[in-house]
Amino acid sequence: MRDCYELRFDGTDRYYLNPELKEIVNIAIAMEKPLLLTGEAGTGKTQLAFEIARALGLRMEEARCKSTFKGEELCYVYDTVLRLNDSRFGSGDSGRDVNNIWDYIRFGPIGRAFTADDRRVLLLDEIDKTDSDTQDNLLDVLEDGSFIIREINYKVVAKHRPIIVITSNAKRELSDPFLRRCFCHYIPFPSPEEMAIIVRLHYPDIPEPFIEACLTVFYRLREQDFEKPPATAELLDWIGAMRRAGVKGPGGGKNIPFIGTLLKRTEDILRFKGISSRGRY
C-alpha cells in the first residue's frame, strides 16, 4: 500500500489537467485533505474523481448527494425494520442472526471507504444539495477519519484515509466550518484553446478545421443566454453524433445538426428555432 505522499496524479488520456488544478489535486492527496471542487456544470468536477481512481489504480466509493441525505447515512444505516421483521418471522436462509446487530448494519460510501483494506477514492458529488446540518455532521468524520455507530457505541476508524473529492455546483452556500476543512478549487469553464485539447483527447483523429468550426458554433451558442448553455459533455456528444452520422461540418445559423445534443431545455430549443410555446417569436 503506497502512502499518500507517494501518489501523484498527472492527468490521463481522457482528462485535461491544467497546471493549477494539477497542483491543488496533488497537494490535497499528499496532505490527506478533502478537495472541494466548484464551478459550472460540465467543467469536469465529477469526472476528475473517476480519473484519479483510474490513473492511480484505486477503487471508487461515490455518493450522489440528495436533499434528503443525512450525514449519518453516508457512513452507515442500521436497518431496524429488517431486524424487527426477522425477529417476528425469522431470517430464513439469509444467514442473518437477529441477535447480531452487525448483520443489520449497512455501510454507506464513507463507511465502505473507511473499512476497506485498500485505499479508495471517495466522491461526495453535489454536496450543496444537502442541508447545513448534514454538512456539519460530516465535519469531524472527514477531518478525523472516523465515526461512531451510535447503536453500539462503536468507533469506526479509517484503515486507510481515502482520497476525498467533493463537488459543488453552488446551488446552496456551504458552511464556513465545512469550507475550512477542505482545500478548495474553482474550475473555470475551459477556454477555446483548452477545449480544443479536451476534444482531441476524445477524438484524436478529427481534422483541425472541423474542431475549429465546432468550437466557433459551440461558444457562439454559449453566448446566447440560454437557460442551460451547452457544456463540455454536450460538445463531445455533438461531435460524436456528427461523426457517427458522417456529417461533414457543424453548420451554422439555424442549420446546426443534432441541436438536441447541445441544447437540452425545451424553451432553449424553441428559442433557438425561433419558436415560442404560443407560436412564432
Query: By CATH's scheme, which homologous superfamily of the largest domain applies?
Result: P-loop containing nucleotide triphosphate hydrolases
**CATH architect. name of the largest domain:** 3-Layer(aba) Sandwich
Termini separation comes to 63 Å
Encode the helix/strand succession as letters.
Answer: HEHEHEHEHEHEEEHEHHHHEE
Beta-strand portion reads: 15-25%
The CATH class of the largest domain turns out to be Alpha Beta
For this entry, give a set of tags.
single chain; 281 residues; alpha/beta; Rossmann fold; 2 domains; two-stranded antiparallel sheet; 11 helices
Structure commentary:
- This protein is of the alpha/beta class and 281 residues long.
- The protein folds into 2 domains: 4-70 and 112-186, 3-Layer(aba) Sandwich (Rossmann fold); 192-280.
- 40% of the residues lie in helices and 16% in strands.
- The strands form 4 sheets. The protein has a 5-stranded parallel sheet, with helices on both faces. Strands 3-4 form a two-stranded antiparallel ribbon.
- Strand 10 and strand 11 (279-280) form a beta hairpin.
- Helix 8 (192-202) packs across helix 9 (208-222).
- The longest helix has 15 residues, at 208-222.
- The protein is elongated, with a radius of gyration of 23 Å.
- It starts with 18 loop residues before the first helix and ends with a strand.
- The model has no long low-confidence stretch (mean pLDDT 91).
